[in-house]
Amino acid sequence: MFEFKNYNDIVVMEVEGELRLGNVRQFDSLLSQAMLQNAGRVVVDLSQLSHIDYKLVPHLVDRVIEIQCQGGEIKLAGGNHYVANILKAMGFDEELYPSVEDAVISFQPHSEEEWQ
After folding, report:
1. pTM for the structure as a whole
2. What is the dihedral of CA 98, 102, 107, 108, to 10 degrees?
């Protein structure tokens, strides 16, 4: 259901199948682990997610805000139209990137030295 990949200093967390009340604690735990791995830069890959329980969207929004408040960065990528519509209908205003690659590229370097 959940798998990690690394792209330089960014963790990609793949989510497959369904995200529902029964597995949201596992999702939260793994997301927390991913945030600790690489300076808090995570892409959540939704390309293999077939369904998200609409009741979890406010929780997901809260997690994104919590991570941002702690200095981390999280991006969601690759959701199909069905999943994207559920997220939007339930108030998820963050950008949903079309692909993991687009999300990874969107991370800005932390300092000028990283540009060189």
Report:
1. 0.85
2. -120
